[in-house]
Every structure is written in C-alpha cells, then in structure tokens.
C-alpha cells in the first residue's frame, strides 16, 4: 500500500468517526448539519454518507420541514443494529456480562454473585463467561459474526482472577477482539459517550464503593499516566501518622480512611445499637439510606463516624479540582444518591475551594447496578466510534515475511 493510500484511509476514518460521534450526540442531523459542523463541502459529506449508508452503518430516517418552504430534508441516524458488543465487568463481589447495540443500549444482561459459586478462580470464571456470552447471543438471535468486540472492565487488586488470561482466552475461544481497562475509566467513557447529561470533554469521574477511583478526562481522552495508574485518588496520602493499612501497602491513604471496612469496624465498636447499619459484613455493605437519615437528624455518633471521613474525601476532591481544572466532578456510587451525604460532600468541596473556583460536584446518572456499561463503552470506542466503523482492506503484502 502506498503512503498516500494510508493517509487517505486515515482521513476517511477520521471523518467517519466524527460523523458517528455527531450522530450519536445529536438529534435530527442532516447532511447539511454535518457539513456545517465538520467544515467539509456538501459534496464531500454526501460521498462519505452514501458509503456509510451502503455499508449499513447509518440510515436515513423521517424527514423534517425545512423552514417555511415546504421542502423536506432527510435526517440521518446511526443504524443501532449495525453490530453488537459484549461487556464484562469484574468487581470484588460479582461479575456482570451484557450485550449492547452500537448505541450502547443494553439488550440483555447476566450477573453472577461470587458467593453463589463453588470456586472463584480464573479457569471456572472463564468457562462461565464464555458459556453465558454464547447464551446471551443465542437468546437474542444475534449471530456471533455481528459482534464487533468484547470489553472488560476490572477493579484493581483482584486476588483470584487473572484478567489478562481471561482476555487472551476469550479472544482465542470466541474469536472476538477483546479490550480491557480499569472499571472506573471504562465507566467514565460510558458517562462521556452515552449520557446526555452535561456533556463535557474535561471532567473528573469519581467512583466510590467499594474502593475509590477516579478517571481524569481531558479533551475527551482519559489520562493513563506512565503506568496506567493516573487518577488513583483513593491512594493519595492524607494522614500518614494514622496507622491504617491499605491494599496499596501505604499508610494513611484516602481509601483506607474512608473504606467501608473501617466504617464497619467503627460501627461495631458502638455496641448493638448501630449494628443495623451493617447490611452485609463479609461484602462490606452499609445501609447508606439509614446513615443518611441519621445524619439528617444530626445523630452525634453517626456524625462522629462519617463527618471526618467525608471531610477527608472532600479535601481530596477539592485538591484534584485545583490540580486538573475540570469543568465539573461527576460522582458515581450508591452513597451519593443519599441527599444529605451528597450535600455534606459537595458543600464541603465548595467551602474548600472558596468563591474563586466555581466547579460543582454533580451526580452521575449511570445505572449503579450495571457496571458493565463501562466495558461496553470501551469496546464501542475501539471497534466502532474511533475508527468510524471503517474496515480497511488489508494489503496481503504487509502480512508476508520480510525479505
Ligand atoms: Zn491505599
């Protein structure tokens, strides 16, 4: 393939990718809108759009009135059934597997709590994931050939699960491209790509419970850092003099100060009266609804346990805002859905920042019970949106051994 050929493919890919992103985020987009937004001629847009319609990537839909002239103009949409992706997420307690269309809409979902399994190790989970993936496809009449990719989102520090091995084996056994990333980063992609809420290309996405993680989104990309560890807000050092222990091996880091495990220990020390706040000790689940109402009543013991923790958390959020200059901080986790807890944290962030910085903490509208949404967004970026659903013809010569 000539150098010129490669370049024109790159340009084509970029234009198609841009078209898909405009269609994903907008409504009733016409060829003229695309030409205006992309700064390309109408003829140029028409050529690309025709090709994409021919391939079934986009479709023409109903028409709309064009001003008062009585002429209709055709609008365009992404063909949501062009292809599908599978998404898998591993958390500390369960796995979620889902299948979605190219618009990120869930078609079917499967969840498995580890506590109901005889063993939790790589090989048995792999067999389960492969079986259930094939079942989800069969159950929804989806042919494996229309699956564009498989995304995996995982939390750090999983002890018995080798995510890399699972990734390699899924690719081998299902013959599907597999992409994996940290769960928080994957969820931030879902927030960015598939929710109409306060669109921004510069924000911080923070996930709390269990564990605490952050994705730093700048100019629409997630910052990885040297070792893919950028954004580990949970392991920033807050109080090194406190002898806490954390899975990261450090003392006094934020996650160890605000972790559910620590909260449960403090609640147990209060005697029987606060035990009802612990919903499940082995899985570190706290009844935040009850915590919220006790905080609303300004119950002194509940305040003494939670207020200092939320102060630590707010301080770190404020410092992150100062460091990364985001448009807002989007928070995800069941605690934030409790109004008193949310306002305690966001008010405190406002206090720390003062009047010169007007960055708000906002609540994510992503489904809390479906962390695999992130895995789907990850797979869709790689297999559909970033490459404009463009399949390059592979030059046979490139695959031959060097002479
Ligand atoms: Zn830590």
Lay out the secondary structure:
Blueprint: H1 3-25, E1 29-30, H2 31-38, H3 42-54, E2 58-66, E3 71-78, E4 84-90, E5 94-101, E6 106-113, H4 122-139, E7 147-154, H5 163-174, E8 178-182, H6 183-194, E9 203-208, E10 212-218, E11 221-222, H7 254-258, H8 260-268, E12 278-280, E13 285-286, H9 288-296, H10 300-324, E14 328-332, H11 339-353, E15 360-363, H12 372-385, H13 396-399
Parallel strand pairs: 4-7, 7-8, 9-14, 14-15
Antiparallel strand pairs: 1-3, 2-3, 4-5, 5-6, 9-10, 10-11, 12-13
Helix pairs in contact: 2-3, 4-5, 6-12, 10-11
Bound molecules: zinc ion.
- Report how far the terminal alpha carbons are from each other: 17 Å
Round the mean pLDDT to the nearest integer and report it. 90
CATH class of the largest domain: Alpha Beta
Estimate the helix proportion, in percent.
40-55%
CATH superfamily of the largest domain: ATPase, nucleotide binding domain
| CATH-derived topology of the largest domain | Nucleotidyltransferase, domain 5
What is the number of strand segments? 15
Evaluate the radius of gyration: 24 Å
List low-confidence stretches.
Answer: 394-403
Q: Can you tell me the overall shape? A: globular
Q: Percent of residues in beta strands? A: 15-25%
Helical/strand content category: alpha/beta
CATH architecture of the largest domain: 2-Layer Sandwich
**Distinct compounds present:** zinc ion
The biggest sheet amounts to: 5 strands, mixed
Number of domains: 3
Key terms:
403 residues, alpha/beta, Arc Repressor Mutant, subunit A, Nucleotidyltransferase, domain 5, 3 domains, 21% strand, globular, disordered C terminus, binds zinc ion
